[in-house]
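Board notes, transcribed. Complex of a protein with GMT.
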Amino acid sequence: MRIGIVCYPTFGGSGVLATELGKALAQKGHQVHFITYSQPVRLLEFNANIFYHEVRVPEYPLFDYPPYELALSSTLVDVIIRYDLDLLHVHYAIPHASAAYMAKKIVQEKINRNVPFITTLHGTDITLVGKDETYEPVVTFSINKSDTITAVSQNLKDETYKNFDIKKEIQVVYNFVDVKRFNKKPFDAFKQAVAPNGEKIIVHASNFRKVKRVQDVVKIFAEIRKKVDCKLLMVGDGPERPKCEEWIKNEGLKNDVRFFGRQEQIEEVLAVCDLFLLPSDYESFGLAALEAMAAHVPVLSSNAGGLPEVNIDGVTGFLFNVGDIEEASRRGIELLSDEAMLEQFKNQAYEHALKFDIHNIVPIYEKIYSKYCRMDCDEQ
Ligand code: GMT
């Protein structure tokens, strides 16, 4: 099929997922067109089935706010007609679902073709930004106009029905991970460099937004470190990072914490780690936790949002109430002090991650697409 994918091209989970989906679809022989304002960060490989179309927003002195959504809709119309796309799959509702609806209507009027669009809800488009009254009417409308709606967890599906007047069925399609990519042997020289005395290695990876509660990461680490020799690796970047570096300095933890910034090869870092921390206020799913599990790293996470659907308490790691540093630290110490238990949790985390392997989830999206297959699309 010929599929248009719209997403945020940055390091966020929704963009990563959309890009990995597009790459997997291209490998399976579909023609995939990414339509975004810059090249998606994970779109590094060459594949003849992958096309990238940049959405340009011309500057004009009259505009204090350049109208990105109009530029996106117009680019969508152009790509749909020029490449005869079968459908659009938009990731993150704002403003992608309304732009897709607008493009669909224009194409209908121009060439009398109905181009379906699938909207995948990822999290903050529903739980934070979307339900704000500034956007809510448009978000509700464009979700309802989507031909298929998917959400990345049961929790996000429930939240969507709770916060918006949605008249259609929402299908849960979980995040996925390429387990083969993350199931790596540890690179001994790297391990030796970050934990020279065989310390346990704790890791956190995120975009350092407020919702991630990176201060809790520091607090939990400080408590665990009182009982277990350990190091903390911080992967990613974002608004809370400067404050986080300050807290670490103030707590006297500087020599035991390393910041790696944004990492394309996060699997190399995860391969040497023993525990992943994710104390978020909310996660619709928690893709970063799944990636850790695929790398044999158990997860110590809050029980917010969809996290309990991914991190199984007492099996793949432990859950704690948001902000409960004491419980989180207790569980971290328990796990890192018992070699046999840690080994068991590492294996269980990996086993559970297999359920979310790319080869299990991508066919679910293909099945959704096949509903919209035109007469000629099997020949692609
Ligand atoms: O976590 C973020 O801040 C990024 C955000 C995004 O929209 O890119 O991630 C969301 O989508 C991911 C992929 O579906 C989910 O795994 C994350 O849990 C979700 N983040 C939140 O709900 C906060």
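Residues 234 and 259 are 5 Å apart (CA to CA). The first strand starts at residue 2 and ends at 6.
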